[in-house]
Each structure stands twice: as C-alpha cells, then as structure tokens.
UniProtKB/TrEMBL annotation:
Source organism: Neolewinella aquimaris
Highest rank taxon of the organism: Bacteria
Leader peptide range in chain numbering: none
Name recorded for this polypeptide: 2Fe-2S ferredoxin
Record keywords, A-Z: 2Fe-2S, Iron, Iron-sulfur, Metal-binding
Biological process, per Gene Ontology: P450-containing electron transport chain
Keyword Iron-sulfur appears in the UniProt entry: yes
PANTHER family cross-referenced by the UniProt entry: FERREDOXIN-2, MITOCHONDRIAL, FERREDOXIN/ADRENODOXIN
GO MF annotation, one: metal ion binding
One Pfam match: Fer2
Cofactor(s) this protein cannot do without: [2Fe-2S] cluster
Family (UniProt): Belongs to the adrenodoxin/putidaredoxin family.
C-alpha cells in the first residue's frame, strides 16, 4: 500500500509497505513527528495523525482505548488516529495522513 504523510511543515512524503503498523512504516522512513515512543501499544499518542476525511472509510474508526488516549490530546479531532493502531495493508492504499502538531 502507498501511504502519504504530510508533516507539520507541509512536506508530503509517500512511502509504501505491506505489513506492520503505519507507525512502524513512518518510523522506518523517518517521517518527522511520528515518534512511536510506546512501541505501538496505544499508550503514548506520539503517533497521532489526522486522516484525510475521504480516507476514513479505509482506515476505519479509532477503537475505544485509542479514543481514550486521544481525548488527552488537545490537537485531536474527529479524524484523529493513533497510527500504530492502523495496520498496513492494501485496504488502506492511497490514504493521506497529516502528522499532528
Ligand atoms: Fe504509542 Fe502509537 S506508538 S500510541
């Protein structure tokens, strides 16, 4: 799947992968702002992204645990996801994710 990240300075980077989580993919490609401090267990929110509205049907909605974490983040909105919780697969090909502040 090809996934596009837009970092806070407006830079757009498209990377491709076929397994693991979106957070791991971002880290592998040194996408700025995706730290993944907790290693992907949904407890740090350093992998926060905003999914492009038209792509939400591909990524699905945040889980309850994920929403609880996002509630603590002032920058969260209805399109927020913790990208360690998004699995890389063909189902999300073409999605655009904006790295949160
Ligand atoms: Fe920590 Fe996603 S990497 S919540």
């Amino acid at each position: 799947a090809n996934i596009t990240f837009i970092t806070t300075d407006g830079t757009s980077t498209t990377v491709s992968g076929n397994s693991g989580s979106v957070m791991e993919l971002a880290r592998d490609h040194s996408i700025e702002g995706i730290l993944g401090n907790c290693g992907g267990v949904c407890s740090c929110a350093t992998c926060h992204v905003h999914v492009a509205p038209e792509d939400v049907r591909k990524t699905g909605e945040a889980s309850e645990i994920e929403r609880d974490m996002l509630e603590l983040d002032d920058n969260a909105d209805e399109y927020s996801r913790l990208c360690c919780q998004i699995v890389v697969s063909d189902a999300i090909d073409g999605v655009v994710l904006r790295v949160a502040e």
